């Protein structure tokens, strides 16, 4: 159901973007530059989101896009913002490296009157309130955790074999994203709270930070396996890449299928969806990059043309949140794969 709603929104957004283009093109002879900087393009979800943004903006002929990779350095990103403003970008899309430190970027943009759309890494509210030409496009972290918890609770209820030692409790571990990221701690908390509210008895064995990264997750999971051997029944990962890293770690053991836990992720990246389709990843939660990039594109259009702002469903005037969606083996074919 959710998917159809998302699709319909995307189609509506597309139609809106096409409408009225002719007029504007004459108005603005030449190119409108949009600058994009990402926190780290080696991040699987971010690189897929960027591809999507490029495709979406490529449909708008008057726009040309400049993309930079901050490769994990806030200083580099500050410089990139400065350069892109000097190069004449009219709007910037910023995926902050340090979501708690956007003031340098905000001051610069404000001085040159260049609006900023922050995306995926949410600045704190006080920062966004500094100027009314700052926006955020993303998703509600809590919803992703709640959905992950519901998916896990459904499976645990339907398959008693998950509680392998039959002690009435689910022994679990957590693989967490970057410390300080809105999608890490909140996803974990809301997933665990949801499982408890659904009546699942839990026993937390351990948790490890793996910074969204598959190789780091494999490493951390290997350590946890050596400590807990076959006791782990459930792995909750804040994203698909870390769930896959955990599965890689089990791939290196000689445990049989009945000794391996169930894994849950978030994102629905290409590899994540594939793992769900193959039944290796129990389920994931779709981080709607198509919806997010359509919303960014609509917002860019509205900023450039001065029209259509009222069509966007802002929260607190500056925030656009797109809903997540549950992905299981049953509905995985409805989700876009590369
Ligand atoms: C999250 C996503 C992670 C990672 C992170 C980067 O929304 O689930 O996989 O890409 O954003 O900020
Ligand atoms: Ca158990």
Could you walk me through the main structural features you see in this protein, from its secondary elements to its overall organization?
This protein is α/β, with parallel strands linked by helices. The protein has 2 domains: 2-139 and 288-324, Response regulator (Rossmann fold); 141-286, Rossmann fold. It is built from 12 helices and 12 strands. A 6-stranded parallel beta sheet has the order 2-1-3-4-5-11, with helices on both faces. Strand 6 (170-176), helix 8 and strand 7 form a beta-alpha-beta unit. Helix 3 (44-58) packs across helix 12 and helix 4 (74-86) runs parallel beside helix 5 (103-111). The longest helix has 18 residues, at 141-158. The protein is elongated. The chain starts with a helix and ends in an 11-residue tail after the last strand. The model is unreliable at 1-30 (pLDDT under 50). It binds beta-D-galactopyranose and calcium ion (CA). Calcium ion (CA) is lined by residues 163, 165, 167, 169-171, 233.
Observed structural traits:
338 residues; alpha/beta; Rossmann fold; 2 domains; six-stranded parallel beta sheet; four-stranded parallel beta sheet; 12 strands; 18% strand; elongated; disordered N terminus; binds beta-D-galactopyranose; binds calcium ion
